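Postdoc handover notes: sequence design on the structure in folder B. Input tokens:
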């Protein structure tokens, strides 16, 4: 039905040639825009209701009772459903450290939360199907768990800024909400999220549509295709300086896969953009000394590269 609408709008209302590059790009843009916004509006609301059960204080309490390894797994899973991004890194990091959460467990959460979220899951599911969506979620969780474990085993607590250890964040009382209050929260959150991300969605889909309609068929495959042994680290290096949320990068990912890039290379690029952005490094520099910050970026980048090669090899 959506495809029929997109075809009608692009080729009948606007009058574009269905075989032209512009026609293909506009048809791609209309179809994906309508589809993604419908998915976001419906599913983000449901996820927001789930998120209402996980306040920052509740999250700290849950993680503070779990030691390393088990804590890493739980922290990575909690990162999927909790509403925190890299902008929340400083207060969350301080709160986690004050609560006695092991450093490696804290990093598992901080990696998973921005990398794996409902927006990425929804858009990937809608564009590629459940297999690709769950592959992304699973690989993101694995990266968060392994990277957090590695950082924990290095015992680098001394490379956290000194003032972090001196701060004491008081335990706030957790107030239970009625379902009506949760509904109001979810509705407000959905509206605010859509207001915040709709430009990224439109720009991302527009860029994806341009790649879909105009990029030479073999250009990207030539430099980052399956035959290039350095394609995965190259994708990660390109992704790190970029800044985008999942809403903006997923349509670009769709277009890149449509041009023939292997799934591992594309997922590595997406993970690097969402989990290792330059703004995140600037924020984290306020609580981490240079050596720990570099170690964090290096371990996560290495884990992403390994995951990318694994998917390219076995899928």
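Designed sequence:
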């Amino acid at each position: 039905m959506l495809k029929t609408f997109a075809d009608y709008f692009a080729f009948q209302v606007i009058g574009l040639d269905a075989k032209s590059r512009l026609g293909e790009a506009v048809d791609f843009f209309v179809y994906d825009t309508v589809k993604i916004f419908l998915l976001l509006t419906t599913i983000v609301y449901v996820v927001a209701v789930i998120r209402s059960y996980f306040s920052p204080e509740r999250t700290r309490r849950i993680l503070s009772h779990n030691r390393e390894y088990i804590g890493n797994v739980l922290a990575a899973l909690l990162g999927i459903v909790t509403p925190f991004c890299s902008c929340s890194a400083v207060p969350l990091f301080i709160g986690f450290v004050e609560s006695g959460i092991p450093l490696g467990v804290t990093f598992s959460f901080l990696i998973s939360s921005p990398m794996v979220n409902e927006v990425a899951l929804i858009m990937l599911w809608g564009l590629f199907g459940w297999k690709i969506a769950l592959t992304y979620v699973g690989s993101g969780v694995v990266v968060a768990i392994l990277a957090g474990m590695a950082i924990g085993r290095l015992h680098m607590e001394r490379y956290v800024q000194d003032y972090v250890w001196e701060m004491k964040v008081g335990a706030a009382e957790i107030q239970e909400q009625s379902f009506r209050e949760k509904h109001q929260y979810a509705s407000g959150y959905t509206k605010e999220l859509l207001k915040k991300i709709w430009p990224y969605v439109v720009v991302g889909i527009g860029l994806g549509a341009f790649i879909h309609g105009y990029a030479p068929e073999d250009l990207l495959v030539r430099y980052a295709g399956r035959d290039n042994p350095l394609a995965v680290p190259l994708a990660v290096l390109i992704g790190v300086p970029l800044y985008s949320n999942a809403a903006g990068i997923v349509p670009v990912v769709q277009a890149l896969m449509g041009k023939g890039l292997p799934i591992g290379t594309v997922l590595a690029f997406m993970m690097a953009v969402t989990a290792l952005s330059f703004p995140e490094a600037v924020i984290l520099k306020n609580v981490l000394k240079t050596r720990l910050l570099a170690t964090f970026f290096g371990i996560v980048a290495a884990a992403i590269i390994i995951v990318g090669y694994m998917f390219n090899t076995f899928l």
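Context for whoever picks this up: The CA atoms of residues 42 and 181 lie 18 Å apart. Don't rerun without checking with the PI first.
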